[in-house]
Write a structure and sequence with these properties.
This protein is α+β, with helices and mostly antiparallel strands and 729 residues long. It has 24 helices and 32 strands. It has an eight-stranded antiparallel β-sheet with strand order 12-11-17-8-9-16-13-14. A seven-stranded mixed β-sheet has the order 2-3-1-4-5-6-7, with helices on both faces. Strands 18, 19, 20, 21 and 22 form a five-stranded antiparallel β-sheet that branches. Helix 19 crosses helix 20. It is globular, with a radius of gyration of 27 Å.
Length: 729
């Protein structure tokens, strides 16, 4: 029997023992060594040859991942590890580090209970380290820390034991500051989740040279920092690996310190599911009951050239097996399971069944998308997965030949299904389709895959930046009349507090919450009680308040009012860009007695016009997306690097020395950052490394507003003059 077959059989045997299962993700800033570390773990579990670990990058299965040297898709693998005489099943997800693919990290965190955060010993905690930690903690996932590339402190920076210890303690302190700051607000986390060398939740080592240590492993092997420095300096890295292999240290830490599903699910279910916690299905999920109704949360959709669509996700209750008919949230009817499997890196191995507490790969769920709840009975779906960043850049894509158009449309619909952070707008009349994503690289990878994997030659347009519109002050009361003049709505608009907007963006305030809980949450962020009591609707990052008193027929018309409101907010009055941060109040309404005279054709235009006029009166302005920029560069090129940021309407916030490099940190508009990579290379003779992180939106400078608004209106085929202000009441 082959080794792989044996591993699959052992995984199958352990699936029914939830106490010995660990579901974990490996997450980090780009280039901090996650995929190399994962290679070590696979070698330790006997799944790849020890010699090729670190070079093989077994979890980067796509051709473009190997070419670019970065992880683009989260990849799953199941492996076994013996700890304290008991064999454990470890379901691991290797996640991308590049900010453009952060959506994969967010979705992976829903499937796991523990996150191993990898940090580069030289660079320390970086912006994306903070982001992945936030993504893990928001999902109730417990962190542990692995400090990688410790060999560089010894060989490159020539640090002695004391200097090294000081630097490593600094990294741990930074990570703990982030963890404490984020867990303070979380009522369901009673324990201290900060990481500690003494407790064994910190490991350190070199994924490239395959050695690692932790406090428990040092006690077991009798090694200390002095021994490590001596062996590393003497170039005896193989001996270091033999005496303290990285995979044993990390997998022991995973088995000892990460929660199993039995411990994790009672805490995680209330955080990610808002259904009735006294119901039978709530109990089976909390108790990881493999005999209960099937509940699967889909976190990823992939395509297998032979098997078609594969839905990967966490089984919270019941047992999934071939032939079951399962409901999918938000769709009618059921889908039949064609096959069930587990992942072995790029390969999927079919098994008989997958019980609660495991991560499964299922075919046949054609209606599922990333984020779907799949179950054997109809149930309240899980909370939607809130992605931290929004699309900030758009490209048009069109097929080079009209014959490929139907296939391109089908492929784009599939792309949107696989990656919810991509937004697709399909215009079947013009044949032009718009793809919006997290950054230039995100869109480049998607369009390249359409050409390479689907064989569809495409033309892509220049990148277009996505803007927002936001009111800057309170408006006067505005009247909106219906086309037949029989219905009138009286509306004002004012800016919504920044804290409220941020809380809505994080998914902590929504219309899905119980009313009392929503009211208390929004009042905590600064909204007064009277306003909070009258919330009628929340759309994107805008809040609609019904301040009317006893108006006849308003209840039955409210659905149309909300439709008009959503239309107005989807396409703002300045440039038909989405509106954010608006508090809209309906003060009064005059409605026709007869329902036939207050139908959609009357109410929707009246509300839309009133909202747009009120927004114009509230001095609505264009917001542009901005990015945080960090450049690491040798001293002599520091001026050129900071000049690159300042020359892009950017601002340099900080410059400091780190090792032998200077670090330049600042912010710049996304629009100006297009083409940054080639410019920074030529400005610094190719010696700079950099990364960017989306940092939300800010009001664009007044002198640029008219020009950009005109450009967008022209591009969208709108009238060039702005709408006139009319109908003040």
């Amino acid at each position: 029997m082959g080794r792989r077959k044996k591993i699959v059989q052992e995984c199958e045997r352990l699936m029914d023992e939830p106490e010995n299962i660990r579901n974990i993700a490996i997450a980090a800033h780009v280039d901090h060594g996650k995929t190399t570390l994962t290679d070590n773990l696979l070698a330790g579990a006997g799944m790849i040859a020890d010699e090729s670990a670190g070079q093989q990058l077994a979890m980067d299965t796509e051709e473009d991942e190997q070419e670019r040297g970065i992880t683009i898709d989260a990849a799953n693998v199941s492996m076994t590890h013996e700890y304290e005489d008991t064999n454990h099943l470890i379901n691991l997800i290797d996640t991308p580090g590049h900010v453009d693919f952060g959506g994969d990290v967010t979705r992976a965190m829903r499937a796991v209970d523990g996150a191993l955060v990898v940090v580069d010993a030289v660079e320390g905690a970086m912006p994306q380290t903070e982001t992945v930690l936030r993504q893990a903690l928001r999902e109730g996932v417990k962190p542990a820390l692995f400090i990688n590339k410790v060999d560089r402190l010894i060989s490159e920076l020539q640090e002695g034991p004391e200097e090294m210890q000081r630097r490593l303690m600094g990294v741990i302190a930074d990570v703990n500051e982030l963890i404490r700051g984020m867990t303070e607000e979380m009522d369901d986390i009673n324990d201290d989740w900060s990481v500690s060398v003494e407790e064994g939740t910190v490991g350190l080592g070199s994924a490239l040279y395959k050695w690692g240590v932790s406090m428990p492993s040092m006690q077991r092997t009798g090694m200390d920092f002095g021994d490590i420095i001596d062996l590393e300096q003497a170039d005896k890295r193989q001996e270091l690996h033999d005496r303290t292999p990285l995979s044993d240290v990390v997998l022991d830490m995973v088995c000892e310190h990460f929660p199993n599903p039995v411990d994790a699910q009672p805490r995680r279910i209330p955080r990610i599911w808002r259904g009735d916690d006294e119901s039978e299905i709530a109990k089976t999920m909390r108790f990881v009951d493999e005999e209960g109704e099937v509940v699967l949360m889909v976190t990823d959709i992939g395509i297998d050239p032979h098997a078609g669509e594969i839905a990967a996700g966490r089984v919270f209750s019941g047992t999934i097996e071939k032939g079951q008919d399962l409901y999918i949230s938000g769709t009618a009817g059921t889908n039949r399971v064609q096959s069930v499997g587990i992942y072995m890196g790029g390969e999927r191995e079919e098994v008989e069944h997958v019980p609660a507490g495991n991560i499964a790969a299922v075919t046949g769920l054609r209606d599922a998308i990333a984020g779907s709840t799949v179950s054997s009975v109809e149930m309240t779906p899980f909370e939607s997965i809130e992605h931290i960043s929004e699309p900030v850049i758009t490209k048009s894509v069109e097929a080079k030949t009209m014959d490929d158009l139907p296939k391109l449309i089908q492929t784009l619909q599939q792309v949107a299904k696989e990656d919810p952070t991509i937004q697709i707008e399909i215009n079947e009349d013009t044949g032009e389709h718009l793809i919006s994503g997290q950054g230039e690289l995100h869109l480049e990878v998607i369009t390249q895959r359409i050409e390479r994997n689907q064989g569809i030659p495409v033309n892509t347009g220049e990148p277009i930046v996505v803007y927002r519109e936001a009111p800057q002050k309170a408006s006067r009361e505005v009247e909106g009349r219906s086309p037949n003049n029989h219905n009138r709505f009286y509306i004002t608009v004012e800016p919504l507090g920044e804290d409220i907007v941020e809380t809505i963006k994080r998914g902590e305030i929504s219309m899905d919450m119980p009313e009392l809980e929503r009211r208390e949450s929004i009042m905590e962020q600064g909204m007064d009680k009277d306003t909070a009591q009258n919330i009628e609707h929340i759309y994107k990052n805008n809040v609609f308040i019904d301040d009317t008193k006893g108006i006849q027929h308003l209840n039955e018309t409210m659905e149309l009012v909300i439709e008009g409101l959503e239309e107005a907010l989807e396409d703002g009055p300045l440039a038909a860009e989405p509106v954010e941060g608006a508090l809209i109040r309906l003060h009064d309404a005059r409605l026709h007695e007869d329902a036939i005279h207050r139908g959609p054709a009357q109410v929707i235009p009246a509300v839309r016009r009133a909202v747009h006029n009120a927004l114009m009166d509230a001095e609505i302005k264009l917001l542009e997306p901005i990015q945080q920029v960090r450049i690491d560069v040798p001293n002599e090129h520091m001026g050129a690097a900071s000049g690159e940021i300042q020359g892009r309407r950017g601002r340099v916030d900080d410059m400091y020395q780190e090792g032998d490099l200077m670090v330049v940190e600042g912010i710049a508009p996304v629009d100006e950052m297009i083409g940054f990579s080639s410019d920074i290379r030529s400005a610094t003779e190719g010696r700079a490394s950099w990364n960017t992180e989306n940092a939300g939106f800010r009001v664009m400078a007044d002198n640029l507003q008219p020009e950009i608004i005109q450009e967008i209106r022209e591009r969208k085929g709108m009238k060039l003059e702005l709408p006139e202000l009319v109908d003040y009441f």
